[in-house]
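Just wondering, does anyone understand what follows?

——
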Amino acid sequence: MAIDPRLVVTGFRPDGAAVVVGDTLVTPITARALPGQEMYLMWGSPDGGATVGPKAAPPVTLPFFAGAGGTRLLLVRFPPASSVPPPSTEEERAEIDAEVEERLPGLMDVFEPGDTSGMHTTDTLDYGICLEGELWLELDSGDEVRLTPGACVVQQGTRHAWHNRAATPALMAFVGIGAERAS
């Protein structure tokens, strides 16, 4: 049975007691450029660092990638590999790209123009956990590793791609922490 992503958020009453301030199912964001993929933008902290307490900053989920010191919590459901044809015209490609930028600002900025391999590089430290299905992590060196439920990945800003080579969807949870790239 597939997981339905749900977000439970705690906070404070005026007297300082801890309470549940939110409990909701999260609606996925989809885009034609990513056929069958579902992005669940759960929560994030502003760039520069998180705060807690009665006057904590409100959640930030966009832009897609956090800047230095910011965080993002998201779940991504990857569909099985498919043979979805690429857009047939430049106009269609521009329309699809505009849709992604509107729904998931900053996501496509990390992909190399014209590269259909899915390889990308982010300035984030990412913790990933496979929750459902199986997914392959590919690195630009050619190294690949198969992830199954319970596998945890620490992605340290390397060039990589995700591939679902199975017949069923795969669900990954990611915590992305915006980082400065050291030379």
Remarks:
- The beta strands are 6-12, 18-25, 38-45, 71-78, 124-132, 135-139, 144-147, 152-156, 160-163, 170-178.
